[in-house]
């Protein structure tokens, strides 16, 4: 279910604010009844009219993008930088990213036009597991990695327990490559976790999202999720166990 004004805006009829004005002025009907209050949520089966014209809703689509570094996780950027939707020039639907990856972080990013699906996957309660591989400055001791595993106190609170594995280290360059599995999605979380133990991230990539990986894709490539994959993601989230065993 999505808010009525969001559905109207998503259909390209008006901006979100203009859609709210249309609702308040009695210009919108849902299932034949005039709606004048904001906040009503509608589903795919509800029939919506704006000033007597039926609202045509897009079929839901779901994509997996291998986001390169140096790209903004947004549909537009006021500084003119490259955004993730620039890779979907041949797609005529108004898609947007589910969550975000930092400008300097590469890896899996999902995009859709299905608001319910996006909200489901982004809600921390549903614990969708994400696997990151970080190259960090310095070689953290086992005690430091244990800190990450137990939880790190950041300015916005304690992180949930993580799974951490040292993949490789370079004693000469004093760097390490570490895998981190988390289910939260705070802003710059993995980077801040490593900063907190004194090992700043030099390079970061999200390699897995639940059961999805980047196999067969190069940076900038994307593919459509299969109906089965979409069902699996929904099932993982709704089960409250977003960790793919």
Automatic annotation (TrEMBL):
Keyword RNA-binding: yes
Listed PROSITE patterns: PSI_RSU, S4
Enzyme class per UniProt: isomerase
Signal sequence interval, chain numbering: none
EC assignment: 5.4.99.-
Listed Gene3D superfamilies: Alpha-L RNA-binding motif, Pseudouridine synthase I, catalytic domain, N-terminal subdomain, RNA-binding S4 domain
Superkingdom, taxonomy of origin: Bacteria
Alphabetized UniProt keyword annotations: Isomerase, RNA-binding
Annotated Pfam families: PseudoU_synth_2, S4
Residue span, RNA-binding S4 domain: 2-65
InterPro entries attached to this UniProt entry: PsdUridine_s_RsuA/RluB/E/F_cat, PsdUridine_synth_cat_dom_sf, PsdUridine_synth_RsuA/RluA, PsdUridine_synth_RsuA/RluB/E/F, PsdUridine_synth_RsuA/RluB_CS, RsuA_PseudoU_synthase, S4_RNA-bd, S4_RNA-bd_sf
Xref: NCBIfam families: pseudouridine synthase
Annotated family: Belongs to the pseudouridine synthase RsuA family.
This protein's name: Pseudouridine synthase
Organism: Anoxybacteroides rupiense
